[in-house]
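Notebook B, p. 112. Complex prediction, attempt 2.
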Amino acid sequence: MRAPAGVRDFDPADMTVRVGAGTPVTELDTALAEGGQRANLPVTPGATVGGVLAVGRDDVHALGRGRLRDALLEAVYVADDGRLVTAGGPTVKNVSGFDLCRVLVGSLGTLGLVGEVILRTWPRPMSEQWLVGPSDPVELRRVLYRPSSILWDGQTSWVHLEGHASDVESEAELARSLGCEPTNGPPPFPAYRVSSGAVENGGLSGSYLVQIGTGVAYVSEPVLATDPAPAVVALHRRLKSEFDPRGRLNPGRDPLVAA
Amino acid sequence: MKFRKADPLMQDLRRVLPSDRVRAAPLERSIMGRDASIFEGGRAGPVCFPISTEEVQGCVDAARRHGRAVVPRGAGTGLAGGAVPLEEPVVVVTTKMNQLVSVDADQRVAWVQPGMINLDLSRALAPHGLHFAPDPSSQQVCSLGGNVGTNAGGPHCLAHGVTSAHVLAVEVVLMSGEAMVLGNPNGWTPGLDLRGAYVGSEGMMGITTAIAVRLTPDPPAVQTLLLAFDSVDAAAQTVSAVIANGIVPAAIEMMDNNIIRAVEEFVGAGFPTDAAAVVIVEVDGLPGGVAEEADRVMEMATARGGSVRRAADDQERALLWKGRKSAFGAIARIKPNYYLHDTVVPRTRLAEVMNRVYEIVEEHELQVMNVFHAGDGNLHPMLLFDRREPGIMPRVHAAGAAIIEASLAVGGVLSGEHGIGMEKRDFMPLMFSEADLDAQARLRRAFDPEEMANPGKVLPTGASCADVNALDKVPEGVWG
């Protein structure tokens, strides 16, 4: 089944865009760029807006730009019984009722089939720069003012700076003083997403990349996640059975089992 | 109902808490019957002041054994009636759980107890060069648990986001008595974002007993501008132009002529009393971007006929913000009562809706003042009145309803930061279909299957199949 596609209702002055969930994220990014803006979604070639939201992985710049879970303002989805449900609201600020959008992000399609969404958009940065070096990521974070990304593989740090050209230049100077040099972009991400606690606990067999400040790490070999608390598992089960009592939505997938 | 010492519920609660922290005297129950909203006539049952998660669990267990609902309460500063107790529930007040538990400056996270006051947290973080970004106007008195309950905002949420974006994890006690941590203080944990579902649930999913908050570094540079316009339209167009041109200031606040004059008499912040509207714009960040953005904002204001003033130093900057934040004190000199509204409209429709608000107020022969978060499109019309005037309340409520309808008509929402509570519960069907409300009720039931946490709020009756505790209507005398 494929969700509706196409970018509609984009006004840069509102900093919101209404888009069909089947729209490729690259197409959305191109449309937003024409208005000088972007959304906090990873721009993965071949991926759709709905797919990216269902998987719930943050963009590489989430440290400075914000989390994917905060990008979704409104979602129209088909519930398990075929009814159309609107979650959230169209404006950049909204506390009308319970926040269904948060649980849809990262739900792997197990709670409803998302058809159309309204996303928050942001201005594109004027200037940006990646740097790389053997620097301590905690030190980089302490010294730099709100870098948009810091990645760390246990030995090397990658840092992304963005904003006004003169600020990027002065921050890059600080990063250079800590041992970083300009580079073209971030390294490839290992396949599996885990809580960054898995890296801190040690004992990983393959390589890893920590997305500093987001609580997320990517690892090359799957690791068994620490079992969540039984009360949290029970709450997940109750939520799933409230939204999909007959188990019709993406059977077999469980957001608690990380991938 | 009177609660005597022999009352079995009181006896059970006193097994959990020392007697000075379980109270049922008429005065205390009467105080806890209200919050900062206009609702009167709520009825509190026993009032509990726990100091630990275990004590909160004990209170919840005791209430459950006696089939009694539970209303969590922080500082009681809510404006939508969310903490007003209905039908004598057990009220669990978290004000004595007010400690800063831990700060990790490197990881930018602090664990706090829910009763801690918002501003006290930022004061405690100042030596680290960090702060908690959400800054509701009530930040000197509101609690962080309450901020989580309403997903609170504030002037500086435009660039930095509302409470939900600054809460990494919450420890909660559900109505089953179980305590658990939702989310992860590191920032992510596998599974559904239960943390995000819980933030903004207005006490209807459980009781917050600890919060892991994300800390924001203090900006190296700040500039504060005061823009004055001779029409509301020009002010609103400038706000839209700033955003459309790729600038997201830390804050954009608008005040109309009525409130400018009231504030100026009250604090003398130097606001031009002949302006139709003033806009306070604050840009923060690194010095290069701040200087350039401030210059461009001033150009855009001048191009639309505005006059501009740049705060020369921290003292002048503080004075401008004092003017903005004293608005509520200033109006007390004009009328004894006010009803503060809270809707959001698309930023591009601001001027149109404000003009409609002026018409509505005139139709109902009331006075209005507007001071609000223009950058977010978050309107706060304040209706001024004297409660003693015969026949005034129906007019106040009719004008409020018309403002809500005007906001929804242009694609807006019911509430931007105060929440739904009792105030807007019965307006929910204007924004949401039956299926939408049913989905929200299901989310709530996953947390609270028996619907014993703060019943009767947010969702109108009929939104839920199991409405054992929901009320058909707001009880007699609750509307003030």
